């Protein structure tokens, strides 16, 4: 008996299938796939077609339309999760200087401190923010953890959230962490860098699609939404900014990616506070 197998190169991504994949991905995750993404779509989804033993893109697209699980997995595979510890470091410098002293004082008075990393990917952004908040003194940081201090870290893609929750990274990534934080909040286990339990204690990882309703009700002191709006169209970006404005306390900050802008009707709710940093008015 011969078993037919397909290699990724066997499949053809016809224009109609590409258009349907792009439409579904946009409708469910806001992600815009223009013609330049054809090769990316091909290589990411060919793996799923092969894994499922399907005949090609035609059959896969039919399944994407009828089976929610296939659709979800396809969309997760189409996300771009590139990130880095202390990426766009000027945001963490700003947070340390402009916001941290106020948040520590508030936490010591018993007030809740709330942060949100809204497209956290594999955790590098929330861990960088947690280290910046806890500072370079372990005893003082450990005291702060006992207060009402919490960070929500969310992403659409479960495969990156499980890396984030584990808090273990290849040792060579240690070079991205400023030395004063690295010596306090990370340890090396073999060739892996492990995040300290105090960091993990204040971060709650959850799966959340930014397009869906949000369960959070209290106001945030800072929201990081970096390098995800680039994948969205203008109305989706504008709506997202509006929703962030509703959830940010007066005087709090919104941090966005280096090529992103605050747009839409909520623009007036913010004043520029630095390079891609916006202060919530009020
Ligand atoms: C390029 S990464 C950015 C990671 C991090 N914020 C940074 O700047 O380094 C973009 C992340 O956005 C997530 N994403 C894409 N569409 C999303 C959506 N609709 N809701 C929530 N997260 C989404 C992806 O899964 C991916 O992990």
TrEMBL record:
One Pfam assignment = CheR_N
Q: Which InterPro entries match?
A: Bact_Chemotaxis_MeTrfase, Chemotaxis_MeTrfase_CheR, CheR_C, CheR_MeTrfase, CheR_N, CheR_N_sf, SAM-dependent_MTases_sf
Instruction: Tell me what reaction this enzyme catalyses.
Output: L-glutamyl-[protein] + S-adenosyl-L-methionine = [protein]-L-glutamate 5-O-methyl ester + S-adenosyl-L-homocysteine
SMART domains in alphabetical order: MeTrc (SM00138)
Provide the top EC class.
transferase
What SUPFAM superfamilies does UniProt report for this protein, alphabetically? Chemotaxis receptor methyltransferase CheR, N-terminal domain (SSF47757), S-adenosyl-L-methionine-dependent methyltransferases (SSF53335)
The UniProt record lists the CheR-type methyltransferase domain at 6-282
Q: Which PROSITE patterns match?
A: CHER
Q: Which UniProt keywords apply?
A: Methyltransferase, S-adenosyl-L-methionine, Transferase
Q: What is its EC number?
A: 2.1.1.80
Entry function: Methylation of the membrane-bound methyl-accepting chemotaxis proteins (MCP) to form gamma-glutamyl methyl ester residues in MCP.
Q: What is this protein called?
A: Chemotaxis protein methyltransferase
Species whose genome carries this gene: Sphingomonas aurea
